[in-house]
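Next comes a single protein record:
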Amino acid sequence: MLRTHLLLETRACTKVHVLVVSDETVENDSRFHDLKAVAHALANNGLRVTFGHASAFTERIGHNDALTMFSTYDAVLLQGPSATMLADFAAYSNTSVVRFVGVREAGVNDDIPPLHERPEVVVLGSDTGAALPKEPGLWYTSHMELPVGSVKNPGAPQYQELVQRILPLCKAGSQMREAREKNENLTKDIMGLVIIAKNEALRISDPLLSMKDHIDYWTVLDANSTDNTSEVVTQLMQGRPGHLLHHNFTDFSTARNTALNSHGQHTKYAVMLDADMSIPAAWRLRVTLQRVAQLCAAWEEDPMCFQAFQVQAFVEGVKFFTDRIFPTADIGTLDGWHYTYPVHEIPQLLKMPSSVSPEETTVKLLTVDIMTAEDPSHRRVARAKELDLRLLREERQKKPDDTRVAFYLAQTLQTVSMLPEAVDAYEERVQMGGWYEEVFESLLRKGRILVDLKKDPMRDLMRAVETSPYRAEPFRVMAWHHAIMSAACNASGWFDSACFLRHRVAALHYAKRASKLPQPRKDLMFVDLSTYTEHALGAVVDHAFQVAWKTQGAAYMGKEAASFLNNYRGRHLYNRTRAQELVDKYKELAAWLRHDRGVMWAKPSV
């Protein structure tokens, strides 16, 4: 029966076109397949084959044609690290993936992450059952074995089996049409957009336009705007399913939960964005959520079916992970994903299934980033003064032991320039202990404020180093502090070169220490990317120039000192000669006095 089905597929697709992509990073590794030999064998077995290297395709990511680079192929054969990178582009083009896996028994770390890959066929590099992917999300996949040694024989029976598995992947074939229809039913109404906004007419177009073509439904809550926010939303989203609602704002969690609950299950997932956010690669987010829907249809107990997704956000040079994508079952209520805290709110799920541990409530999504427009400082300060500070002080009274409230109260005091109070508040947060990243950031920010207040920050910055010795930011602030101190060396009206050099050399020392530290991988919050990409090295150059500039006269000073030394040496030799002459004279006089001819020294009379 299977043979007959394959023959029918072959007649329907007389020109099956396969792209074989060889990953240069594993090409010479004997534990991986030789995909060039695989391409040769497939061509010998009657397939139309195009061969290419992964770098040629990864370099196209970000260009206009990237989304369609696999559209002309029926299947793409991938292997190695590039497979995960390219899988989304194949999925966008409805191009099937045949995923080759190295010999795991030989120590190859070649797992297939279900969140980022969903191949139609997995080709194992070993002939033992131990090589089967252990991820439940891949149990649905068609597996076959093609030991890496088989590539030496293009006529090996495994290649004929591989051809028979590739033929049904033809896009024009009935099997793939049925598969696409099934997936479309599974992924229907997969992704929705939810936003709360107040007086955001000038900025709300960013998230709406970045998501509009990739969502199935939208919900925008207007919190009593006095501008034309509602009109802008209605006009931009015309023709797309969704709705606008109005809400009397009390606090941020209430507003978000109201919006999420109103959105409900119009879609399987809700993407919660702020009015100043955008997702440039929203299509990748949709592809990922489609994979999750397919996974949960096959394995509904998988933790991923209940988890929220974290994406990396970039805000004014700082990166952090934030929970933004949620399954919509009971969303906005205590039975589903909902927000807590009146300001600087965070999502939580209280009723996680027993099969999911508390540490598994979220999963990081590394292929999608959120970009945030710069918020004018006057808007940020005004909101902090008018709303945030009041809400946080009230919450601090209610929850004196809550470290999150303590931290954001200190941050808000800093935002509104209540700096002495912010210093005390950050120290209170440090003394509470808890999450080391928040403790580190509190010490770092306290040090920065002390620099602004012209006070010594070194003790607190060194405490920050002790908390996270692999972070470069404290050393950068130390360098900044000493640079400021060097500028004050002429405060008395005359320039103190020794003072200037002492502080500039110290600044150079700390800047060099900062420049040698790589960007941290495990820290999630408040990482200042600019410190690791440019500013630390730029500080080294600046301070090195200042030290060199101030010491450029050292050579001339050295020559002048050498001339003084030569003069001193000459005078010293002259004085030694004169002294020796005097010594000789005294010796002669002493000898003459002891042996005076005819002169007898009379003894004194008693």
Q: What stands out?
A: The longest helix spans residues 554-594. The domain at 189-372 is CATH 3.90.550 (Spore Coat Polysaccharide Biosynthesis Protein SpsA; Chain A). The chain has three domains: 2-184, 189-372, 377-550.
